[in-house]
Task: structure prediction
Amino acid sequence: MARSTSLSEEAFRALRAEKRPGESDSDVILRLRREARAKRKDPMRFLRRKPNFAFPEKEYDRILDKMRAADRRDAWRE
Result:
């Protein structure tokens, strides 16, 4: 479903500058969003995946809880 959106002149020029041949405005916005998400650093991303090695699941969860608690303690120090 198509929807109308208003952009400032500056935003419209920026959108046009990012546009590649054959891309619609929607394609540009979705591509830029994917690229931004891919570049965003998430230090906990690797911890959210359950590993298939190294520790049994209960041990892994215990270690993860311990790391989160340490992070919370460190956050209060800053």
About this structure: The CA atoms of residues 19 and 42 lie 28 Å apart. The longest helix spans residues 57-77. The chain has a mean pLDDT of 82. The two ends are 47 Å apart (CA to CA).
